[in-house]
């Protein structure tokens, strides 16, 4: 596999490209970040990892039951952490992982695997799904989108960046489609010069494509995001490496992510992770202290579950993530009602 240096120099030195393209190549190119051997878990922890993942998987299994699903598909599943937890908890569920890498070693044999092109693109074999719950956990935030900047009152320019340094400058005007998306979901007329907009049209398109693959079932996106009333003035583009924030440089050496305009996604339900998990029975209540004497092992296990539940539902942490749910009937059309 080429090094990140070779990846970065695929561009002519000093030539800046639109963030959307540089971002995509940095994550999903031949030497992209998500193709690295250590996988995402080598750089950051999500709700699907470790002790958190055990509790989270239980909630996903409960949701699958509620939606009448016998099959769970995990989009952008890393190295299959959530699927492994699900198989341990519910071996009766059919499970499929979708990611840009080949099937990892160590995941249960019962888990099916599809290799994805990356970004918002999905494999052709993922289609015609029935009785399914499709989970896109922290997928849309790494579907690259156009980053734009207000360069004059009411006027946007696409932000371009040097793939080797991250140095930026304003470029061309966004496309008509991107301008129309902003007018509907992220109006710029009242934004100050220098404000940034992360244009969500690519995320909306990826979400619509994913929903179209389901004939009967439900599709769930879990991600950090924002609503129209609280769009961030200066954007959210960020990078992570080895558990730390770093400068966003699209050279393949770090994760690149931006929050999702979750209310622009077609949905039937939209709620915080805190509310969604509580509705699925995830509680942070401590076990009875007396059980520490009568059932020490059970007490320790219950205490671990309670601690994980507290982290997953923390209102200023993972509990502030958004759960976006879309239901489909056998014709692939809406089966629920939008809230």
UniProtKB/TrEMBL annotation:
<dbReference type="InterPro" id="IPR003788">
    <property type="entry name" value="NDUFAF7"/>
</dbReference>
<dbReference type="InterPro" id="IPR029063">
    <property type="entry name" value="SAM-dependent_MTases_sf"/>
</dbReference>
<keyword id="KW-0489">Methyltransferase</keyword>
<keyword id="KW-0808">Transferase</keyword>
<dbReference type="Pfam" id="PF02636">
    <property type="entry name" value="Methyltransf_28"/>
</dbReference>
<dbReference type="GO" id="GO:0008168">
    <property type="term" value="F:methyltransferase activity"/>
</dbReference>
<dbReference type="InterPro" id="IPR038375">
    <property type="entry name" value="NDUFAF7_sf"/>
</dbReference>
<dbReference type="GO" id="GO:0032259">
    <property type="term" value="P:methylation"/>
</dbReference>
<protein>
    <submittedName>
        <fullName>SAM-dependent methyltransferase</fullName>
    </submittedName>
</protein>
């Amino acid at each position: 596999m080429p090094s990140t240096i070779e990846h970065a120099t695929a561009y002519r030195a000093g030539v800046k490209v639109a963030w959307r393209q540089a971002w995509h190549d940095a994550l999903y190119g031949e030497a992209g970040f998500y193709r690295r051997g250590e996988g995402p878990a080598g750089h950051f922890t999500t709700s699907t990892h470790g002790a958190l993942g055990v509790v989270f998987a239980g909630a996903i299994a409960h949701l699958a039951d509620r939606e009448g699903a016998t099959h769970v598909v995990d989009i952008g599943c890393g190295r299959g952490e959530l699927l492994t937890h699900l198989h341990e908890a519910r071996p009766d569920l059919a499970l499929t992982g979708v990611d840009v890498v080949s099937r990892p070693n160590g995941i249960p044999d019962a888990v099916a695997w599809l290799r994805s092109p990356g970004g918002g693109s999905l494999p052709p074999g993922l289609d015609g799904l029935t009785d399914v719950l499709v989970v896109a956990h922290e997928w849309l935030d790494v579907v690259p989108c156009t980053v734009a900047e207000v360069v004059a009152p009411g006027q946007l320019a696409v932000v371009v960046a040097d793939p080797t340094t991250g140095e930026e400058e304003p470029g061309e005007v966004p496309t008509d489609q991107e301008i129309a998306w902003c007018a509907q979901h992220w109006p710029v007329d009242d934004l100050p010069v220098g404000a940034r907009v992360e244009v969500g049209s690519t995320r909306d398109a990826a979400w619509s494509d994913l929903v179209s693959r389901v004939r009967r079932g439900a599709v769930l996106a879990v991600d950090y995001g924002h609503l129209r009333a609280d769009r961030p003035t200066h954007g959210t583009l960020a990078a992570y490496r080895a558990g730390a924030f770093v400068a966003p440089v699209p050279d393949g050496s770090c994760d690149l992510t931006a929050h999702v305009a979750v209310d622009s996604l077609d949905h039937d339900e939209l709620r915080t992770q805190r509310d969604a998990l509580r509705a699925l029975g995830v509680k942070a209540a401590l076990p009875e202290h007396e059980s520490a004497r009568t059932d020490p092992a059970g007490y320790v296990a219950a205490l671990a579950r309670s601690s994980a539940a507290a982290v997953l539902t923390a209102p200023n942490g993972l509990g502030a993530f958004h759960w976006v749910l879309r239901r489909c009937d056998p014709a692939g059309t809406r089966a629920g009602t939008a809230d």
